[in-house]
Structures are given as C-alpha cells and as structure tokens.
Design brief:
This protein is an all-beta fold. Helices cover 0% and strands 53% of the residues. The strands form two sheets. Strands 2, 4, 5, 6, 9, 10 and 11 form a seven-stranded mixed β-sheet that branches. Strands 1-3-8-7 form a four-stranded antiparallel β-sheet, with no helix packed on it. It starts with a strand and ends with a strand.
C-alpha cells in the first residue's frame, strides 16, 4: 500500500517563506511526474507546480518567480519552496506522486 505524507505547513507572515516536503512509501513501479496542488476555502483545487521525468517543471502564473518545485522521482520525494508569500497563497496544499495523494497540509499567510 502506498502512503504519501506531506509536512512543512504552518502560519507565516506576508513576505515570509515556507518549505513543504512530501515523500511516498510503498511500492510504485514507475513515477513520471509529481506535483503540488492547493485548495482555498470555496475554491476548486488548482495545480501549483509540477515536475516531470527529464527535469521539466511547470508553475501556475500566480506563483512564478516565488515558488520552486524540486525533488527526486527515484527517491519519491518532492519539495515546494515558497518565498514572498502572500495572503492569497493561503490554502491546504496537497502533494501528488504519480497517482497517489497526500492528506494535505495547511498554509496560512497572515499578519
């Protein structure tokens, strides 16, 4: 059974930084991509950042230049470095490794 566990969320002031971590355990034959999503209250879940085999990364426009996704598809770990955080970044952040999802971690940006 595959488990995906996120960590690193919390409360931060506007302009601050957080680093989210995610790791998968269990048997996964092959991983081609990993990603971070977020869901704010009353809004649909959105894709924030993805990374693919070969090193390609993609970002939603609202986080470009502020967030960085990194990780290792073989080690099944993925990270999201979030800088210059804004109140509108407040959401539950979810990690996806292949087709497996984590339980989510709350990020709150507030003074």
């Amino acid at each position: 059974q595959v488990q995906v566990v996120e960590s690193g969320g919390g409360l931060v002031q506007p302009g601050g930084s957080l680093r989210l971590s995610c790791a998968a355990s269990g048997s996964i034959f092959r991983i081609d991509n990993m990603g971070w999503y977020r869901q704010a209250p009353g809004r649909q879940r959105e894709l924030v950042a993805s990374m693919y085999s070969g090193g390609t990364t993609t970002y939603v426009d609202s986080v470009k230049g502020r967030f960085t996704i990194s990780g290792d598809l073989v080690k099944r770990t993925v990270y999201l470095q979030m800088n210059s955080l804004k109140p509108e970044d407040t959401a539950v952040y979810y990690c996806r490794i292949h087709v497996f999802w984590g339980q989510g971690t709350q990020v709150t940006v507030s003074s």
